[in-house]
Design goal:
Elements (H helix, E strand, L loop, with lengths): L24 H6 L6 E2 L9 E6 L5 H8 L10 E3 L5 E3 L6 E2 L13 H4 E6 L9 H18 L6 E3 H4 L13 H6 L8 H4 L9 H11 L7 H12 L9 H16 L1
Helix pairs in contact: 8-10
The structure holds zinc ion.
Zinc ion binds next to loops.
Amino acid sequence: MATGSPAPGIPAASAPRAADLPLTLAEERAARSSPNHGDRRDGLRPDLVVLHFTAMATAELALDRLCDPVAEVSAHWLIARDGEVHSLVPEERRAWHAGAGSWCGQGDINSRSIGIELDNDGRSPFSEPLMSALEDLLPGVMARHGIGPGGVIGHSDMAPGRKVDPGGRFDWLRLVRRDLALWPDVDILSIKEEGPCDIGELDSLLTEIGYPGDAPHEDRLAAFRLRARPFFTGAADATDLARARAVLARLAEA
Ligand SMILES: [Zn+2]
């Protein structure tokens, strides 16, 4: 790999080969690194992992874009749908994946996070090899930076209304079962209550969970539902309120 030493526990993307043999196109791509990064600002260190989907048809197209200096976007890691893990930006550097937004009242998420792009077009299920590779990658990332399961969030969480990734098809429950995310768990997803809800109370709960306080109610609710109530639409109701209470309780226990 041209990207320096692979992280502990992360296999190199391709086996070493004789120097006189030209790289295949696939090997060249596997050895890519991104020029799109800078210093983390104000001495900030990662305390979040932000998960994304690439919204592109193939990992190759995503690699081209994430490594294109003109695009000015990047992530520390890209996981292809075949499970191959690409290290694009060293974790100590500030990658450019999060953009505008905040979490728990803190901005400049790029300086506070590790970004992981998942090769998914935004409509299809996430592949089993990709999910398995994510489960293998996350524990090392979290251990290296002392990030707990509550610090693993989606791009949609920190940028409601602007971003929807990793989306309603992403299997958060699978990460929760491995202690790689905090919510939603089975108990939260099974909560069902009838009736209206106090919008003011729901909005306070969403802010306490971490959602940006300056985003519109509808956008925050939609972002919350991407994790806590996938594919449900319509006005906020008692189920949203009860699930938000349960998420906060989960955060308080952590
Ligand atoms: Zn994203």
